[in-house]
């Protein structure tokens, strides 16, 4: 089984086990990683599951669709590798993935 | 674990009545804050917490299954020692700090969280018990609806609010003929400006839904199954299925009988506390005092249930962090994503950005006394995020600039924050 790591804004690291077919957001929620609110439960409607993907991993996290793109356009603390965690499907190929959490979700 | 400021010992028991959005978040937040004692959720639905929003959307449309509605996987509760008990709580004995369940069992508590939500309002009309007449609140309701779908060619929906119109879209997508009957003079009357109502009426009509407003259903008729809906003006509408979505009422009787204050819900302060310091309430059942607006608020939305649950959990752990999050809501119909920030009640000016009379994307910004108070954004996520930001910072954009759709949201943002 693979692992991935969430790094909070203050540097706290959370290493969680990968379970295939779950989104990155669900991995955070199921492992009680703080800092991902996910108000809408993964409908791409709230923007409160913002993560900044480690640059080395960004290309592997898949394509951004237009509704995610629209949400990210105005996200505070947005970065070139920003994604919404609920739109990233986790597979074993993402073993070792590292994502950073913003200071605040909006 | 961080924030382990909890004052709870291992022998303390927190009981949560209800096991839905508010309860699931409250239990999670208690553990995150270091609550060391037992956590017990009691649900009369006998299910682990599941997402309600998809019930009228993807789940009704047959695009997802029941398992994918789970808020957390079953293993989560075991791992974090959150017990899930099936049963209906019938009384709170505050002096003894016990609960009575319908099966006669008792549960003791040290802290109690009421997350009892709402229940649907039943139309007090003839024929409501006929087969084929459905409410839409629980997974069981929608499983019943889905079982009836294969025999349904024509459906009548009573109520043109979010749930009614989402249901219309989900049924229409499956080729069912849909008639919506709304008592008010326009759909969404309670919650939006006329331009937004007119937009949704047009979209639904373009999809083939028939909408009648200003009309009151007076009876459901049929032998064993419903066959038609009869209205006060003498018209009648053939139906193989009827779905009633005319609103909900808070489950606050339990609290009331225990001597807690209730008024359109269970009355709580900005810490989600009732007048009993060991009892909190969160979610659709809670009517909360908001010191910022100087108003009482009972909201029916997932984000509100989650925010109040976090506040309530903090209160139970001895922290004092008042609720001050911005209300927001979403609704999916067809390819339209409606995102609402703020509360528009009491608006005196509406500024429209984009064209709601054609196309499928625009935003309506609501002002009161020159201040931005809310925005309805249809397929306009940048505007939604912009509105959320302005509202939480209590800044107001220039209405004329806002109405100019040739100015990008990014530019508007720079002008305001610049
Ligand atoms: C079809 C539908 C679509 C929706 N769509 C959206 C949407 O798009 N966006 C949005 O933000 N919100 C939406 N909502 C609203 C949202 O689902 C509610 O705001 C949310 O469910 C509130 O959660 P809650 O935990 O406060 O209460 P509820 O979900 O109402 O849960 C309360 C639970 O407590 C149980 N209970 C009550 N009394 C007792 C008792 N005495 N003993 C034991 N158990 C008890 C109830 O049976 C119920 O299971 C929708 C609702 C419905 C029905
Ligand atoms: S969970 Fe709401 S946008 Fe991802």
Describe this structure in words.
The complex is a heterodimer of chains A (106) and B (418). By secondary structure, chain A is α+β, with helices and mostly antiparallel strands. Chain A contains 2 helices and 5 strands. Chain A has a 5-stranded mixed β-sheet with strand order 2-1-5-3-4, covered by helices on one side. In chain A, strand 1 and strand 2 form a beta hairpin. The mean pLDDT of chain A is 93. Chain B is an alpha/beta fold and 418 residues long. Chain B has 3 domains: 175 residues, FAD/NAD(P)-binding domain (3-Layer(bba) Sandwich), CATH 3.50.50.60; 125 residues, FAD/NAD(P)-binding domain (3-Layer(bba) Sandwich), CATH 3.50.50; 83 residues, 2-Layer Sandwich (Enolase-like, domain 1). Chain B contains 10 helices and 26 strands. In chain B, the strands form 7 sheets. In chain B, strands 3-2-1-7-19 form a 5-stranded parallel β-sheet. In chain B, strands 9-16-10-11-12 form a 5-stranded parallel β-sheet. Chain B has a 5-stranded antiparallel β-sheet with strand order 22-23-26-25-24. In chain B, helix 1 runs parallel beside helix 7. Classes of the chains: A alpha+beta (106), B alpha/beta (418). Chains A and B meet through helix 2 of A and helix 1, helix 7, strand 22, helix 8 and helix 10 of B.
